[in-house]
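thread: overnight batch results

M.L. [08:02]
morning all. the overnight job finished for the chain we discussed friday. pasting input first so we're all looking at the same thing
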Amino acid sequence: MRAPEESAGSAAASPEPGPPADPAVYEPPAGRLRNRSHASSAVRETSHSLLRIAMLFMRVGPALMLVVLVIVLKFLSVKFLTSQNIGNVLSQTAIIALLAVGMLLVILTRGIDLSVGSTIALASVVGAMAFHHVHSGFLIILIMLGVGLAVGLANGLVYVYGKIPHPFIVTLAALSIVRGLALWLTKGQPQEGMPAIVQDIGGGRIGWLPKSAFVVAGVALLAAFVCTRVVWGRWVYAVGGNPEAARRTGIPVRGVLVSVYAISGLCAGVAALVSAGRLNAGTPTSGDLAELDAIAAVVIGGASFLGGRGNVGNAIIGALMIGVIRNGMNLLNINAYLQPIVIGVVILLAVELDVVRGQIENKFRTLEAARG
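M.L. [08:03]
and the structure it wrote out:
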């Protein structure tokens, strides 16, 4: 009868499993888990910091590209950074920059406006023809701006209320119709003569600075203020980001869409003032392919065709990059036929940069959600 007791006693006396003989190589499971958790947390923090730096770099990418371009051209040509040449660059890019401001608003809403170059032609020839009968500079300015506004408003109304699938179709038709009107009204001939105030806007200078640069600065500052400080500007970004969600929150999506095309046309009217003032004439061929330069400037500036992303400052930087590239190639006596190739390469690089930025932003949001 002693055997069960001995068995129980031996079981009680049997040692429990413990750490290995060498305590230096032993780590409890809980400790290993904590170390792994700390290591994973450190990796996530490092990735988060690197992504934040990459996003900052992407945001300043257009400005950085412009600075690098200016530095390179400075060393390649001693004439590039002279005050006279800087004034020439600003004068040459004024029309593109004005169109880019209006084009940006359209692209922010997932649209496009192909009619702005033709609008320059129509507004300038109508202004020149009106000047043959009316010699009020103020009235001629209003007429030219009115033509631009009317074309843009017509584009917006036909697109929105005509339920056209995409603004590309409407504005492509407008490109042909408006250019045809300019050619028909003038029989293909330039209409000479512009009021002194229009000539001053397009061709006047204060020292080496062209007055058209001040027009660009005024339009850009006004657009930037409206986009960032006025409710309508937030509506534009909301409509471009998610039209259906914007509609459900009570934003007048149709009104916003019509308004951005009207403003794009108005900016083309201002560009017509600069073009006609510089030439002292209205020509039915002015603004040819200017819409492509405007789109390129906006894309180089980092705006997305998917809507809801872009800003006025970067659109102006994109216009300056196009002007600087063309001016630099002229100074270096590079074949003019190569200029479109270079601009095309820059556009592709800008679009690829936008794709990379989108991927980085998605990863950043994922990390932010994991941290939360």
